[in-house]
Fold these 4 entries.
Entry 1:
Amino acid sequence: MLPPAFISPDKRLSLTPFWFWNDKLELPRLLKQLAEFQERGIQGFVIHPRIGLTRDFEWMSRPLLECMRSVIEEAKRRDMHVILYDEAMYPSGSSGGQVVAENTDFACRGMVMQYKPPSASGHNLVYEWKTQSGQMAYVVDRPIESAIRGVHFQDGFGDVVVEGASWMERRAPEDHPPATDLLNPEAVACFIRLVYQRYFDEFGEFFENTIPAIFTDEPYVMGRFSPFDARPGTIGVLEHVNSYLGYDFIPHLPKLWLDDEHDAKRYRADYHRAIYHRLEETYYQPLSQWCEAHSIALTGHPEHADNIGHLRYFQWPGQDVILGDILPGEKAVTGVPSTQAKCAASAAIHQSRPRNANEFMGAYGESISLSLYRFVANWLLVRGCNLLLPHAFFYSIRGARVDDCPPQLGPHARWWNDAELVEFHQVCHRLCWVNFESEPLCSVAILGRSDQLPERSARLLYEQKIDFHYLEERYLWEDARVSANAIEVGPMRYTLLVAEPDCISPKAIDTLCDFSRSGRLLLLENEAVFLKHLNALVEAPLILNDPCPWLRLRVVRKDGALWCLLFNEGEEALATNMTLLPGFRWREIDLGSASLSSIELTRDFPIQLSSGELRLYFGESY
């Protein structure tokens, strides 16, 4: 028998879309859309103030907050959940320009290379040197005049649609509020007070239950739209950089700009890793501590898809699938974006966090199909995601609003009234339950760095049907228990660690000395040799008659049974015979009806999966 909790999962496990509040807000219309969400199996949402808000709904204004309260109260009445969003558009950290309005010293800063010494107030000389041509050059710490995307169109443009152009070309001019210096802890403290504390003052009675989390969105250390060729920095930041790196970086500053400098790539990577560590201390950690103290989860995602280091500060770690980065075939396993679902799932399990989130479908374009929507959701689910955040449900598509990072997945989508959509929502809800508080059958980890996760070794493991998590290397000396036979971190016990030569540091090699001697550290240098050793060391829980390189596998233990997800992420249909783990009675689950087949899977059971199709199998012990 299937557990009742699978058939009708906890409402908090449903899809939780971004709800773009992007026009003049009318409460009856908001409540009508909210009711439509629930009718279609959507039990929660992210309130996202978005480009197109009219001027009478300024960020954190009384009218906006009153609309939020009314919607939150209705969500509570319906037993729905609400995730609050911490910015007036994005990237997070500026409170729609209010941080800089309070103190201009909190404006975003950076380092600029120039050929004249600094003369303006607030422009500080950091380093000077003579170039190979004999010219003096200067590195200057200064405000870089960067901004964020705002929530208001420039007057008169929001109601206009430009015909005969793509949605990217049609986007209307919008406000750009000044960005904050996120490397300055005083500036971040101001941001927390203006947004997080204000939310608590207004809605604290709903925290933890109706409002379980606040979403922070890809904070950029340099904001956006700066007219300068700047590098990240702030007053006194080099003291932190030197301390983190263990050497004096100042003589290497020219390498941040000049490609012909010796070993420039390595020094740039060192510098950016140090800056991201500083951002952890000044931004992510204070937000995380505030959320923990107020019984709420910090969720959202960092700037880049493989920034796993920042995710240790999220109670619900997350990532973001955008711009068509994930598609059937090669794009499902190639490039930095292909690491992000495992990035968030790995961060969550190693920190023993209950949820991991993925915003997805943003800026995929106007004409996507429901099948592609389903494909990306399945891609996330088979990698362990248990909080799906579709981007986005639009409140309004009036005028230029229709061009703000489509597709529209909510009330304005062409499939909004289709029964197939409701079933899709239900299936995602049930699969999130499978991934929630379950134990993955996984004994392999891939070593990564705080801002670098290997994709090549990940692809090989996927193709061999061997599940894995990414293990950030600092866990080896901060959080994990490393012995000759295993690496234990959180609830996981790994008996094999995979590493790529450019993603393992000397400190990691030293820490893994005994583990490596026992033959449990596997370096990917020669692919054929790697696969030979891998298959000798790890037995996949699935035997296939054909290699099926595009078939993905996830097996978890939950409620005394095994649950096996199979997903075809290739462009073509596949057919093969499979044998699942022995010792279990395996049957297929009809995900739409939540019913269990009476047919038991035998050895060499034939299966067929179309492109993007996901199947779920239920294994009970004999």
Entry 2:
Amino acid sequence: MCGIVGYVGTDRSLEVLLGGLKRLEYRGYDSAGVAIIDDNGDLHTAKRAGKLSVLTDDLKVNPIGNGSTGIGHTRWATHGGPTDRNAHPHLGDDGRLAVIHNGIIENFAALKDELLAEGFAFTSETDTEVAAVLLGREYRATGSLQDAFRLVVSRLEGAFTLLALHQDEPGVVVGARRNSPLVIGLGEGENFLGSDVAAFVEHTRNAVAIGQDQIVTITPDSVTVTDFDGERVEVEPFEVAWDASASEKGGWSSFMAKEISEEPDAVANTMRARHHDGQVVIPELEALGDDVLAGIDRITIIACGTAAYAGQVGSYAIEQWARVPVQVELSHEFRYRDPVITPKTLVISISQSGETMDTLMAVKFAREAGATVISVCNTQGATIPRESDAVIYTHAGPEVAVASTKAFVAQITALYLFGLHLARVRGTLSVPEQARQLDELAAIPAKLSKVLESHDSIAQLAKWMADTRAVLFLGRHVGFPIAMEGALKLKELAYIHAEGFAAGELKHGPIALIEPGQPVFVVVPSPRGSDEMHKKVVSNIQEIRARGARVIAIAEQGDAAVLPFADEVIPIPLAAPLFEPLLAVIPLQIFAMELSSAKGLDVDQPRNLAKSVTVE
């Protein structure tokens, strides 16, 4: 949620800010604004509710000039509705200082009462304006933006990233963060700040992640990082693994269409350099030591939304291969139920952005309780990996569409690799069996490419069903979380009622939902994996078909037992049972995307959703 850009350098601040905000649109927002200090040393702001295009059109009519110092923001409304006056930046020190903010300041009401009692006035309903007015007051007292920041952040409670500039200090932008992301971009004669590297990757791939409770000051030629007490902090630069072209559509109709097409590469890249001679070895886990992994007695996977469904798929493989109990928990429920955690508990967090606030808080809780924490993440320099004992990076590349697709299959791949790594460490799979499972995983990218060839026929099916008001999804074993993920995609993209069920639950209540014409997607397991389970799912299909359901089956190529009972069959290549989810999810992603398109909806930026949920 919220996109933040800061810039100091040459006389092109507005260009840099608007370009950065454009690349951060995927995070989700409802208003946008900028503040710059022009060449005469005057501060100018512009902000508008609505899409970034509303702001850029307004700037053409009402230009604010340019300059070498600026900050920009896309806002997701929390305190106060999405209006012009609630949009960022907010001003302090009689309009001489501008502030942008990501997060929630939990004690803003008490601070606002204090400032009102002192005679300060407010023009918005936001918590951010309280920080701006407070910062302006402290600037008057100290005459230094850095010193004012240290005084202000010590009084703020909650999660925040703050950026500010003051017209008396041109060429300086100061930022601070607590439980909210902030990254530095290192340039030549210019420096950048951003809520993630997409804000500045067009200009530099050299970056530094800001740590918890730290303040950064950038000028064109320097970067200084301190803690909240003012003590200097040493930082470690890293190189962004992708460039700006990777976050562009490249001729595709949507970012989601492009990202679905990239799923074979996402799996292959996540596997790369993590296996040798038929065994999986994940270099990032070597620092933990094999003795730590060998000594764990249970695993808890924590995640939200799509990542949680990836965790559920992965849990089947990890438990089967490594013979250790695995449970999957929603991050936002985990720490509130007083879970039993011991030093032998391994917690695996999953977050595409590495900034999901619910998951971050759960990670901190788990570490404080003594657990070892490994994160699965797609974003370099993110907060959750830095708060973990080790990280397995997926290499899906930037995912711009709000609804996750290629990150999902990359997360499952990372969990499968971890399961094989853990099985090797614990000695629970023979060497030939490890090699066999690895060969199955290595074959997935080519099979994914084969599934993608069905895109046009699935798109046609979606067009025929454009007026559908509700869709049900059924699956068993690893097909169950895929059914839930298919339902989630349809909710996110097409705004219609969709539910995923374990197929065995049908007779326990959900079958009451079946009526003539009700579309039901069924993820059919391979008979080669479990003939009994396959027969049970075919029986489920017969049950709902007898009550008038329209059945769309996702089944392996050549599964003749399904054909007499399904209205439509979407074939997927043959794969071992544990690997079928990677193939079965693709048709469901395509269907949701194409149904959304058929309804004329925004596939990449669904209503009310943000790519990275950075508030609880």
Entry 3:
Amino acid sequence: MAEIKNPNQQANAGSSTTMLVMMVVFLGVFFGLRYFGPKKQPTPATPAQQQQAQQHQEALQQATTTAVANPTAASVAAEGEQTTTIENAVYRITFTNRGAQVTHWILKDYKDSHGAPLDLVHKTVAAKYGYPLSLYSYDTSAMAKVNSGLYVASATGNLTAPATLTFTYATGGLEVKKTFTFDNSYVLGSRIEVKQNGAPVRALLTWPGALGDQENTSHHTYDQVDTSQNGSETHLAAKKVSGGNTLNGPFDWAGISDPYFAAIFLPENPATATIVTLSHPIDVSKDGDGKNLISIPALGVAAGDISGFSSVRLFAGPKAVSVLKNVKAADGKTTLEPLLDFGFFGVIGKYLFLALQAVHKYVPNWGWSIIVLTVIINLILLPLRYKTMQSALKMQRIQPQMDAIKARYAKYKVTDPKRGEMNAEIMELQKREGVNVFGGCLPTLIQLPLLFAFLGMLPKVVELRGAHWYWLHDLTAADPYHILPIIMIVSQFLMQFYTPSPGMDPAQQKMMAFMMPAFSGYITWNYASGLALYWSIGNLIGIIQQQVMNRTSLGREMKELAAKRARRRQPATIQGRR
């Protein structure tokens, strides 16, 4: 029977080819610009500034020499190691007076992969290359001295924000004073003063490398150095970061981030700000199980002021839209919101996420929020689906005339100029009958950018990190049982089967029927499960909508026309004598 063979699957060869070409072009543009597009580099230090850095280095070297030559100089140091813990509603930070640096930076609202409170201090990197809020200088021996000395803390034990904590240390003419201020946000303030015999010496406050949630290579794939200069942001991937490279301002902000968290310095004096990019090799597990170790770069940043005394604020927390838009640079206008980089279709991705957040206000579960948003999008696209069906019906009505035109030119080769006349006749026929060649591609033209926007947005949204939905424990991670990708493959095949498409070549029909499900399954198999959820629900809704439209008068007419053509194409049966 014709319906068993699904004559509705007939489609114009040119339309299917056009859709395939558009899909390939979209993929090429998206991934090409995302990974190979040019990146604007921050301004490197000028020779004069490099000379100034060298002078500061010599000053610190003199400090070490003076300390040895003048052991009776005034010194300030604690007798033993002590800790101070600062706590507010969103974090708990533990300082040690050895180097006046941070050993733990706990974010209370987030968990690591083991379900424990997330510590932003990367233990492996910190033990090897230094802890957050240590100092960076161009003299390694002086840096080791100021980062290992026992500072005198203004308070020990437990403190509750708002609070101020000061550390002081002095030896051999070298004086260091660190002052930190805390409020109820993710941002803390700092004032760093380093002097050698009373003269300012440039020393930078550092986040030496990586963040605590970067436990395997899947997270480190997205490590980057982020900067903003005069309101224009730059995101540098790990492979483009040079360790020890000095960059001078102006800087609105600068730091490091992964898909979900960031450590960003905000200078109080952007015009005279300076940063040093850091890159250290570390061994990380490919699968997060402690095995299959590979060496990758752990990124860090040191920030301060070329004058020597540095006043910088530090944001260390989640890359949540609601948080980032409220953290402003010294100009009071530039925010940290550009840290959320959703790729080539980032503008669409941003508004999709804002829409998802709006839905989440009324639907507490993020998985159900994705489903509700998918339903809304498909309802908005329903009129376009109907228009597509009308266009397909018009195409099907004139298909016999198009076949007759093609038959007249069948004797000519594809490269023959006569083929151009054939195409001109077909286009004239379509124009005369009011057929829009691209009418059937309109929903695809709209849905592909939405799909790519979800593709770039979902794996980088901290709100979905660890979000549960039935068997899914993290909507930003792949479906562990591949249930959704399998549903998506089957539903994609059914979409191809039930969607009417006039006049398709059988070979192309088979190619599209199997290639599209395979393509979509490949994308979602090891990708964010939130994308597979969106795509699968969209397919199921599309199948229901198509089944309803197939039962309308328009749909029945298309089926009848397709069935007639299918019967005409069947070879005649010759009855033999018994």
Entry 4:
Amino acid sequence: MSSNISIYEQGLDQTTANFVALSPVSFVERSAEVFGDLPAVVHGARRQTWAQTRERSARLAAALRALGVARGSTVSVMLPNTPEMVEAHYAVPALNAVLNTLNTRLDAALLAWQMNHCEAQVLITDREFAPTIAEALRLLHSEHGRTPIVIDVCDSEYAGPGDRLGTHEYEALLAAHAPLARLDGPADEWDAIAVSYTSGTTGDPKGVVTHHRGAYLNAVSNAATWTMPHFPIYLWTLPMFHCNGWCFPWTIAMLGGTHVCLRRVDAPSILGAMREHRVDHYCAAPIVHNLLIAAPDELRAGITQKVRGMVAGAAPPAAMIEGMAKLGFDITHVYGLTEVYGPAAVAVKRASWAGESLSEQTRLNGRQGVRYALQEGMTVLDPETMVETPADGQTMGEIMFRGNIVMKGYLKNPQASAAAFAGGWFHTGDLAVMEPDRYVKIKDRSKDIIISGGENISSIEVEDALYRHPAVMACAVVARPDPKWGETPVAYVELKPGAEVSAAELVTHCKSLLAGYKAPKEVRFEAIPKTSTGKIQKFQLRERARSTQAIE
């Protein structure tokens, strides 16, 4: 009598010996076990080995467990790039709890809203942020009836003002608890590991829920994408609150590397740390790379090691990629969103590109590229028909992802989750073309396309032209209402220190590189609003352009 059960399904059961749920927590245990004597964290005068970092993380996990943190509990953290932030990324997931890293630039009302929305049970906060957090906690209690347990971090490298707000102090709490015997991952790799909030440029921000499996696979993908060796020395220029540091807290643990922490991000601090600690890897938004390009030569003196940078967070201007190449920094361009754990695509460099001119290399490297090795799908689809656009470099569609490195969904927002996953793909909202080699190139965010007289103008294309002027430090182009054309481009520009250029000169410069109708009709020399990760906040500029138009 035949059976429908395959011979490979008989007596070959899944057991604890042959199956373990994927979780990046396992990387910490391995590095402590194998590389325990090697450096794990550098922070000012502080030094920690992997054995010490694992022990401190296990003490934090034990302390949080004693405070009632368990599977599904939310632990919010308001921390700069410090050892405590690294430890939170190891301890909270080990309890199968959910880590909520708060943006340190947010105001009290938004912080209170987020902590209420994710039902924060514990808050770990640095003294520096005490004034804002005190107000956030007041609002959280008065408006939402929620009072989380507060743990204060008194960082040895911070000498500024800031009151203690909680009943627990971080170091005393660790000292009072024996470390857990092991930092274990979850029973189910689909369990949530973190909730990260989008910027909320339209309506309330959305809570992006990510899982252990995705965090594990993206951490591995980071290493594969960058061909990172064992023991990298990684500089924290990217805020760890941003998409969990693009999963690099776990990537560095996997490789037994060294976290070099920075509380402040500026050119002297970055370049000084690179020189002192022989840093060889760092990540940043384009604005931070531009800081290094504009830095005086003397700040870069003594950096003789090969430094590899990863850029994402916004489409990098061609001038930035070219400028970093001239400095000798090896830049890898990646692309992603909070919903895909940070970077999930990369402009993979091919050997043949090295023979191209610098301008052509810049063009090739400036593309958003192809999917990460462990991401199952990335393409450009017509969002209406869900049909893939031809790889002709001309036909525009929307970038979409599918696979293991995609969020679980939006917290308490099934409608938004369903819309984001419509048709079996995650919709990014980024408009792009697919080039003949199947590398993707963003043309703009759907809301950033300027429609002037029926013609589509890519704000990115205009910005690229502006960045090619030697006086421009930062710029952003948005639409302003126009009674004749419907919309016309207006450019907001910040100049490099000591540089001078007129608006007319910049318009002429753009016209030398673009069709005349694409050039800005107005240039405003004003401070450009940015997020704490260096991303330009165009929604504020669009509002500014509209309000100015109304006044006129």
